[in-house]
Amino acid sequence: MASLAHTRSYGERALNATNTTAKLIFETMERKKTNLAVSVDVTCTSDLLAIIEAVAPYTHVDILEDFDHSLIERLQHLGREHDFLYFEDRKFADIGNTVALQYSSGVHKISSWAHVTNAHPVPGPSVIKGLSSVGLPLGRGLLLLAEMSTAGSLAVGTYTEEAVRMARKHRDFVIGFIAQRRMEGVGAGPEDDVSTEDFLIMTPGIGLESKGDSMGQQYRTPRTAVLETGSDIIIVGRGIYGTDPKEVDRIAAKAERYMSEGWAAYLERLS
Ligand code: S5P
C-alpha cells in the first residue's frame, strides 16, 4: 500500500515523528502556518541579518551560507524570538570520518547551531554514519539530496532509488530528502513496509516570476511543488531576496506572498 504521509496534516505527522528535529519542524510549521524556507545565499553579515529580520515572521527554516562564527549567538536569539529553525545547506559529500569533523568542528561548528543539514548520498552510507555520530546525540536531523532542481542533474533513476534505500536504513537520523517529489516507496523491496513511511520533502527550485536562471536552475511554482508533487517545504532564495538585500519591505512582501501560496496549496492538498 502506498504511504499517505502527504495527505496528513503537519500536526499529525509531528505526533508520529521519532526524530527530535523532524518533530520540531512539523510542530513549528503547524504553529506558524508556514511551509516556507528562505534560502539566504549572501556573503555579507549585515545583508544576512537584514534578510532574516525581514522574513522571520514568514519562515520556519533559514538556509545560511558563508556563515561567520561570531553570528551564532545573534542567530540563535533571532531564531528564538521569531520561532524558526536553521537549516545549513552544507551538502556534505565526503567519507564519514571527514564529514564528522566538518560537521562538528572548523570555523562553522555547524552541528552546534543548525537543526538540519544535508548531504549528497554519493559516498554511500559512510556519509550518514559520520554525520549521525555527531548529530544524533544532539537530536539533529539530516536530509539526503535524492534529486536536484538543475537541468541535467545526475541524481535520477537508480541513484535516487539508492538514496532512498540508504535513508530507510537510517531513519533515526535521516528525516527526509531534498527532492522534487515524494519519496515514500521509491526503491522499496517486498520486505519494506512503505505504508507508514513519512519523509520530510524539502523542495528548491521555486519561483513565481521566473522559469529559471542562466546557470541551469529550474523553477516551479509553490502550488505545483506542494499540490501536484507533494513537497512539504518550499525553499525560496532569489524569488524573495532578489538582487538588493537592503530592500527589506519588498523582501518581506515577497516572503509573505510565497508563504501564503505555499500554505494555500498545502490546505488544498489536505482537503
Ligand atoms: O537541487 C537543489 C538543491 C538545493 S539545496 N537546488 C537548489 O537550488 N538548492 C539550493 O536552493 C541552492 O543551493 C540555493 O541555496 C537554493 C535555491 O536558491 P534560488 O535563489 O534559486 O531560489
Automatic annotation (TrEMBL):
Positions of substrate binding: D41, S149, Q217, G237, R238
Where does the Orotidine 5'-phosphate decarboxylase domain start and stop, copy by copy?
Answer: 35-251
Q: Which SMART domains match?
A: OMPdecase
Which GO terms fall under biological process for this protein? Answer: 'de novo' pyrimidine nucleobase biosynthetic process; 'de novo' UMP biosynthetic process
Q: Name one GO molecular function term.
A: orotate phosphoribosyltransferase activity
Q: EC annotation? A: 4.1.1.23
Domain of life, per UniProt, equals Eukaryota
Write down the InterPro entries for this protein, in alphabetical order. Aldolase_TIM, OMPdecase, OMPdeCOase_dom, RibuloseP-bd_barrel
Q: In the UniProt entry, which residues are flagged as the active site?
A: D89, K91, D94
Q: In which pathway does it act?
A: Pyrimidine metabolism; UMP biosynthesis via de novo pathway; UMP from orotate: step 2/2
Q: Which SUPFAM superfamilies match?
A: Ribulose-phoshate binding barrel
Q: Which UniProt keywords apply?
A: Decarboxylase, Lyase, Pyrimidine biosynthesis
- Going by the record, the broad EC class of this enzyme is lyase
Q: Cross-referenced PANTHER family, in alphabetical order?
A: OROTATE PHOSPHORIBOSYLTRANSFERASE, URIDINE 5'-MONOPHOSPHATE SYNTHASE
Q: Which NCBIfam families match?
A: pyrF
Q: What does the sequence similarity comment in the record state about its family? A: Belongs to the OMP decarboxylase family.
The protein depicted here goes by the name: Orotidine 5'-phosphate decarboxylase
Q: Which organism is it from?
A: Cyclocybe aegerita (Black poplar mushroom)
